[in-house]
Amino acid sequence: MSCAHTPACPSVSDRSCWTAHVVADHSEQGWCRLCNGVILFDDGYYLAPDGHSEPVLVSA
One short Pfam family name for this protein (predicted)? Predict the structure, then answer.
């Protein structure tokens, strides 16, 4: 997926892919879709377009 934001959002393969811009907010259902195709869930996990799920990694 291509990003039109400046600067460009991280790609889905980037370690911080979950920091991309929200393009569809469904927070009432506990999730949102990001411009790179990632689905970000309120429980601290994200689902990548290839189907794998990982926890959001936050640097301390």
Answer: DUF5999
Q: pTM (2 decimals)?
A: 0.85
Domain that residue 30 falls in: 1-60
pLDDT tens, position by position, 31-47: 999 999 999 999 999 99
* CA 42 from centroid of its chain's CA atoms: 11
In the structure encoding, which two tokens stand for residue 45, read together? Answer: 């996990």
Query: Distance between CA 44 and CA 6 in Å, rounded?
Result: 26
Distance CA 51, CA 45 (A): 12
Cα gap 14→19, rounded to integer Å: 10
